[in-house]
């Protein structure tokens, strides 16, 4: 696994792997206040670990998989996990009916979003080229890698927009 792959997969580990598991635990134990408190504390601590040491959870996950001697294709697994990953932080709420929203949004987020859009276009082209290659040599691993990069870039565009909205 390259450092580039570890970078974008590492950034997605908490949302794709740990948050859905913790949400399931919370739902299963919703009548047990002690269990809910423990799940909440674990969720906060894992998120804090990830903020303080980016890719910590990814590295932990890789070690657990290696120690268990499981044969897991992480690229494919991450693509499958996107389906159940929470996306609350990707939704813009509360601004739909504010007339000044459009003008403020355009001015406040123009530059960072343009950068993210250029990155998105770059990875979209890479994904397209990877698909062309896939139809020639049937290398699914490269398609998974490219698809994960594209998903990551999409999430980064939306998060950048949300971050800029929260600051204004």
Automatic annotation (TrEMBL):
Membrane topology qualifier:
Peripheral membrane protein
Q: Which InterPro entries does the record associate with it?
A: PDCD10, PDCD10_Homolog, PDCD10_N
Which Pfam families does its entry note?
A: PDCD10_N
Location (main, coarse):
membrane
What's a single GO MF annotation on this record? protein kinase binding
Q: What are the BP-aspect GO terms?
A: regulation of Golgi organization
Q: Where in the cell is it found?
A: Cell membrane; Cytoplasm
Q: Does the keyword Cytoplasm apply?
A: yes
- What Gene3D superfamilies does the record tag this protein with? 1.20.120.1950, Nucleotidyltransferases domain 2 (1.20.120.330)
What keywords would UniProt list here? Cell membrane, Cytoplasm, Membrane
Q: Which family does it belong to?
A: Belongs to the PDCD10 family.
Q: What is this protein called?
A: Programmed cell death protein 10 dimerisation domain-containing protein
């Amino acid at each position: 696994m390259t450092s580039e792959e570890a970078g974008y997969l590492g950034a997605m580990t908490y949302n794709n792997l740990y948050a859905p598991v913790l949400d399931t635990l919370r739902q299963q134990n919703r009548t047990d206040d002690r269990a809910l408190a423990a799940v909440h504390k674990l969720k906060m601590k894992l998120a804090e670990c990830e903020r303080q040491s980016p890719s910590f959870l990814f590295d932990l996950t890789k070690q657990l998989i290696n120690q268990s001697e499981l044969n897991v294709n992480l690229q494919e697994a991450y693509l499958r996990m996107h389906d159940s990953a929470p996306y609350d932080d990707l939704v813009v709420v509360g601004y739909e009916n504010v007339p000044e929203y459009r003008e403020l949004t355009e001015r406040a987020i123009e530059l960072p979003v343009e950068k993210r859009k250029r990155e998105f276009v770059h990875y979209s082209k890479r994904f397209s080229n990877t698909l062309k290659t896939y139809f020639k040599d049937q290398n699914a691993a490269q398609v998974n890698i490219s698809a994960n990069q594209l998903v990551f870039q999409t999430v980064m565009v939306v998060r950048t927009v949300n971050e800029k909205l929260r600051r204004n």
